[in-house]
Amino acid sequence: MSGGVSLHVVDIASGRAAQGLRVSIAVVGGAPIAEGIIDDRGQWPELAALSERFAVGVYEVRLQVAQFYRQLGSDLPDVPFLDELVYRFGIGDAQAHYHLPFKITAWGVSCFRGGA
After folding, report:
1. Are 75 and 38 in contact (CB under 8 A)?
2. How far apart are CA 65 and CA 38, in angstroms?
3. What is the pLDDT of residue 116?
4. Residue 68's closest CA among 76, 56, 60, 57?
5. Which residues contact 75 (CB under 8 A, 6 or more apart)?
6. Distance between CA 18 and CA 110 in Å, rounded?
């Protein structure tokens, strides 16, 4: 796979894919490139068709963490610890693929540049 961005999101509190989590991605300061929902495999497959939109630059992925956990029935406080998680990352080589594997709970997150 060359160019573009892919995501994989796992709810590590349950050990399952974060199916139903709302996500978006945009160039910093710009309109969203795409908005979508994580599928039953923990992926956002629509991003694969958008690889040409990812040039060298700085981007933000937005994950609606509190909304996701509330939909699962979690009893979060009115002001949740993680509400909309904004993860900013840079693309320095538009020909390279950038895979972002997120591990989330209502109380924390881990992400790095993966090798998908």
Report:
1. no
2. 12
3. 55
4. 76
5. none
6. 14
